[in-house]
TrEMBL record:
SMART domains xref list: PKS_KR (SM00822)
Family under the similarity heading: Belongs to the short-chain dehydrogenases/reductases (SDR) family.
Name this protein carries in UniProt: SDR family oxidoreductase
Domain of life: Bacteria
Length: 241
């Protein structure tokens, strides 16, 4: 168990992020999560962890806001005194084909999915303990064709994969590993309206569970993954299109 270790999950109020926070708390980490639009869902995550004997706090932080990202790290350190694992899960999906794509949606996607990821990693590793872990949540669209209207989202997630591959070199001297999980379709708010259309495209004939992504994140956060860094791990049921 990791009762002295601390994990910060950016975007931990819902879906994959909430599942990761719950799993890390179950594994003994003291957990901080950030939220931007659903304080009720964030409090549900915290309350569930506390009922099960864990420690958790929720911090309001927009991942498009550099000051808010830094404040989330500072509040985590103030509460728990250290940071061992950072999970960067916050992201947005603004679909649209190139003929109609709005500049505002482009800017928002890049601000959260690329700039925000970089800034969250930068803020976290400044004070992270040696041998710490950074985990980003990308998407299988970085390596597989998605669908019409997904180009901007896919571009942002491909940028994350490349970022992780190269940041591994920056962090290696401190034995901090960084890896990227690339989920395919997972049962979250984002996919709720698309399950019937997506499922036939998955060879396993189902979409993933947030808990399955959380299990991979928990392994990457642990000691057993210490020799893996700079990698992108696709977990998508063999999704094809």
């Amino acid at each position: 168990m990791n009762h002295e270790k601390v994990a910060l999950v950016f975007g931990g109020a819902r879906g994959i992020g909430a599942a990761i926070a719950a799993r890390l708390a179950h594994d003994g980490y003291r957990v901080a999560i950030t939220w931007v639009s659903r304080p009720d869902r964030a409090q549900d995550v915290v309350s569930t962890i506390e009922r099960q004997g864990g420690q958790a706090i929720a911090i309001e932080a927009d991942s498009a806001d550099a000051a808010a990202i830094q404040a989330a790290v500072d509040k985590t350190l103030h509460r728990y005194g250290r940071l061992d694992v950072a999970v960067v899960n916050a992201g947005v999906l603004r679909p649209g084909t190139i003929e109609e794509y709005a500049l505002a949606d482009l800017d928002t996607t890049l601000a959260v999915n690329v700039r925000g990821v970089f800034l969250a990693i930068q803020a976290a590793v400044k004070t992270m303990a040696e041998g710490g872990r950074v985990i980003t949540i990308g998407s299988n669209t970085a390596v597989r064709t998605g669908h019409a209207g997904s180009s901007v989202y896919a571009m942002s997630k491909a940028a994350v994969a490349s970022m992780v591959q190269n940041l591994a070199l920056d962090l290696a001297p401190r034995r901090i590993t960084i890896n990227n999980i690339q989920p395919g379709p997972v049962a979250t708010d984002m996919t709720a309206s698309m399950v019937d259309q997506i499922t036939p495209l998955v060879p396993l004939q189902r979409i993933g569970k947030p808990e399955e992504i959380a299990s991979l994140a928990a392994w990457l956060a642990g000691e057993s993954s210490g020799y893996m860094t700079g990698s992108s791990l696709t977990i998508d049921g063999g999704f094809v299109l």
